Amino acid sequence: MSGVWVFNNGVIRLVENPNQSDGVATQAHGRRYVLVYLPTGEAVSSYSSLEQILRSLGWERYFSGDSDLIQYHKRSSIDLISLPRDFSKFNSVYMYDIVVKNPNSFHVRDFK
Protein backbone atom coordinates (compact mmCIF):
# COMPACT_ATOMS: atom_id res chain seq x y z
CA MET A 1 0.00 0.00 0.00
CA SER A 2 1.57 3.26 -1.11
CA GLY A 3 0.36 6.78 -1.52
CA VAL A 4 -0.13 9.98 0.44
CA TRP A 5 -2.35 10.49 3.47
CA VAL A 6 -4.55 13.56 2.95
CA PHE A 7 -6.34 15.33 5.82
CA ASN A 8 -9.33 17.36 4.59
CA ASN A 9 -12.34 18.68 6.54
CA GLY A 10 -11.62 16.46 9.53
CA VAL A 11 -11.31 13.30 7.43
CA ILE A 12 -8.07 11.49 6.67
CA ARG A 13 -7.79 9.27 3.61
CA LEU A 14 -5.12 7.54 1.56
CA VAL A 15 -4.65 8.83 -1.98
CA GLU A 16 -2.84 6.23 -4.09
CA ASN A 17 -0.62 7.47 -6.93
CA PRO A 18 -1.13 11.16 -6.10
CA ASN A 19 1.30 12.25 -8.81
CA GLN A 20 -0.03 10.09 -11.62
CA SER A 21 -0.16 12.08 -14.82
CA ASP A 22 -2.90 12.20 -17.44
CA GLY A 23 -0.39 12.86 -20.21
CA VAL A 24 0.15 16.61 -19.87
CA ALA A 25 -0.54 17.66 -16.29
CA THR A 26 0.69 16.15 -13.06
CA GLN A 27 -1.02 16.42 -9.71
CA ALA A 28 0.59 17.12 -6.35
CA HIS A 29 -1.27 17.91 -3.14
CA GLY A 30 -4.50 18.47 -5.04
CA ARG A 31 -2.93 20.88 -7.54
CA ARG A 32 -2.17 20.04 -11.13
CA TYR A 33 0.96 21.26 -12.90
CA VAL A 34 2.25 21.36 -16.44
CA LEU A 35 5.77 21.96 -17.81
CA VAL A 36 5.70 24.69 -20.45
CA TYR A 37 8.40 25.38 -23.05
CA LEU A 38 8.49 29.20 -22.99
CA PRO A 39 9.64 30.06 -26.56
CA THR A 40 6.59 28.30 -28.06
CA GLY A 41 4.20 28.22 -25.09
CA GLU A 42 3.86 24.47 -25.70
CA ALA A 43 2.98 22.15 -22.81
CA VAL A 44 5.32 19.16 -22.69
CA SER A 45 3.09 16.14 -23.27
CA SER A 46 5.60 13.33 -23.84
CA TYR A 47 9.21 12.39 -23.44
CA SER A 48 9.73 12.50 -27.20
CA SER A 49 8.72 16.18 -27.33
CA LEU A 50 10.79 16.93 -24.22
CA GLU A 51 13.82 15.18 -25.70
CA GLN A 52 13.57 17.23 -28.91
CA ILE A 53 13.53 20.43 -26.86
CA LEU A 54 16.37 19.36 -24.58
CA ARG A 55 18.53 18.36 -27.57
CA SER A 56 17.97 21.79 -29.13
CA LEU A 57 19.21 23.32 -25.86
CA GLY A 58 22.43 21.27 -25.93
CA TRP A 59 21.42 18.36 -23.70
CA GLU A 60 22.49 14.84 -24.67
CA ARG A 61 21.23 11.45 -23.54
CA TYR A 62 23.40 9.97 -20.82
CA PHE A 63 23.34 6.21 -20.63
CA SER A 64 24.00 4.83 -17.18
CA GLY A 65 23.36 1.43 -15.66
CA ASP A 66 19.99 2.42 -14.19
CA SER A 67 17.22 1.14 -16.45
CA ASP A 68 14.51 2.97 -14.47
CA LEU A 69 15.84 6.41 -15.45
CA ILE A 70 16.25 8.51 -18.55
CA GLN A 71 19.14 10.93 -18.08
CA TYR A 72 20.48 13.95 -19.94
CA HIS A 73 23.70 15.91 -19.50
CA LYS A 74 25.36 18.97 -20.99
CA ARG A 75 28.99 18.80 -21.95
CA SER A 76 29.46 22.39 -20.81
CA SER A 77 28.30 21.75 -17.24
CA ILE A 78 28.16 19.16 -14.48
CA ASP A 79 24.35 19.17 -14.50
CA LEU A 80 22.42 15.95 -14.97
CA ILE A 81 18.68 15.66 -15.49
CA SER A 82 17.24 12.34 -14.30
CA LEU A 83 13.67 11.40 -15.19
CA PRO A 84 11.62 8.28 -14.51
CA ARG A 85 11.37 6.07 -17.59
CA ASP A 86 7.58 5.93 -17.16
CA PHE A 87 6.08 9.30 -18.21
CA SER A 88 3.11 8.73 -15.87
CA LYS A 89 5.59 9.16 -12.97
CA PHE A 90 6.85 12.50 -14.33
CA ASN A 91 5.78 14.96 -11.63
CA SER A 92 6.42 18.50 -10.44
CA VAL A 93 9.72 17.56 -8.75
CA TYR A 94 11.17 16.55 -12.13
CA MET A 95 9.59 19.58 -13.80
CA TYR A 96 11.24 21.99 -11.37
CA ASP A 97 14.57 20.21 -11.83
CA ILE A 98 14.32 20.95 -15.56
CA VAL A 99 13.34 24.58 -14.87
CA VAL A 100 16.28 25.14 -12.50
CA LYS A 101 18.71 23.83 -15.10
CA ASN A 102 17.03 25.73 -17.99
CA PRO A 103 15.53 28.85 -16.35
CA ASN A 104 14.95 30.84 -19.54
CA SER A 105 13.37 27.95 -21.45
CA PHE A 106 10.87 26.27 -19.13
CA HIS A 107 8.27 27.18 -16.56
CA VAL A 108 5.94 25.12 -14.37
CA ARG A 109 2.37 26.39 -14.37
CA ASP A 110 -0.90 25.44 -12.76
CA PHE A 111 -2.97 23.34 -15.14
CA LYS A 112 -6.43 24.78 -15.70
UniProtKB/TrEMBL annotation:
InterPro entries with a match to the protein in the record: FPF1 (IPR039274)
GO biological process: regulation of flower development
Family: Belongs to the FPF1 family.
Protein known as: Flowering-promoting factor 1-like protein 2
